[in-house]
Amino acid sequence: MDYEFRRDGFGGYRARFSMGHEAIGQWLIDEVGKDEAVLDELFAVIDRLSARQQEEFRRPGRDYSLTLTQEEAEVKANVLNISLDEDLDDLAYYDDEQLALCGLEDFAAVLTSWRAFIRNEDW
Fold first, then answer.
1. Cβ 25 vs Cβ 17: under 8 Å
2. How many domains does the chain have?
3. What integer is the mean pLDDT of 52-81?
């Protein structure tokens, strides 16, 4: 998974991720931002998951939700949780920019890089 963080000309942040992982970048911007308390919580959860002290963690967000297990991280747009009343057997909704999966260690590395970026360390 490749990614790059940048600041735009208006003081905002941009997170660009390789294809299939775009949702992680949007989640960082929309749901985490500069909130280091969220990062602290996530690092603590990752430590517990890695030590097998916890099986799963869910963090619903405004636009995206995060699920962490002992092996992987999933970022999913909440719009994908909408259920339709019609029978759509032959129709499947999928958007690469709305769902991303990666290993837990890779996700922790992304969070570490994001923290350094928002602190303006080595960027």
1. yes
2. 1
3. 95
> What three-state secondary structure class fits 102?
strand
Contact, 67 vs 57, CB < 8 A? yes
Residue 34's identity, in one-letter code, is: K
Number of Cβ within a 10 Å radius of residue 121: 9
Helices 104-118 and 36-50, interaxial angle, to 10°?
A: 160
Residue 96, in any domain of the structure? yes
Q: Half-sphere exposure of 96 toward its Cβ, with a 13 Å CA cutoff?
A: 6
Burial class of 23 by CB neighbour count within 10 A (0 to 12, 13 to 18, 19+): buried
111-120 pLDDT, tens per residue?
999 999 999 8
DSSP string covering 60-81: --SSEEEEEESSEEEEEEGGGG
Question: Do 61 and 28 contact (CB within 8 A), yes or no?
Answer: no
Q: Tell me which residue range forms the domain holding 71.
A: 3-118
CB 66 within 8 A of CB 97: no
Residue 123 lies in a domain: no
Full-model pTM: 0.85
